[in-house]
């Protein structure tokens, strides 16, 4: 199950909620950059209902169609607990788009240094934006920004190391070409 499903399940552990309430709670805590669409909330709830992880706790009449209130089941609580107890697989990023661009620039006679410089500028721009966001955010937003900043710092170290090794990489890609 995807992160959205587990997140909605965990939010339901606090008590039954309508889809609208779940979307709002998700967006406030986790959706700053990518708020959920209502369709995604309701399709996820439908899947959770089908899988026995949630149940309809009640129907309420409103100005429009009846609103369903969802509650987590014991199976849903067990599922959330198992998900939280399972460590995420670290992503080693052994093959990424940036590395591919550097190699292809070298292979096609373009400037790999320019590719790295442009990427460095974009990383620094994003780091400034995240630093501003972090300064004005609550603790949860600060932690999210720190996570992103640490990843960007690691990327910057890789950019610097790669720039220092461009001649060596070019020689390995095309051994007959003079450095």
TrEMBL record:
Pfam families, A to Z: PadR (PF03551)
Domain Transcription regulator PadR N-terminal: 8-78
InterPro entries: Tscrpt_reg_PadR_N (IPR005149), WH-like_DNA-bd_sf (IPR036388), WH_DNA-bd_sf (IPR036390)
Top-rank taxon, per record: Bacteria
Protein name: PadR family transcriptional regulator
Lineage: Bacteria, Bacillati, Actinomycetota, Actinomycetes, Pseudonocardiales
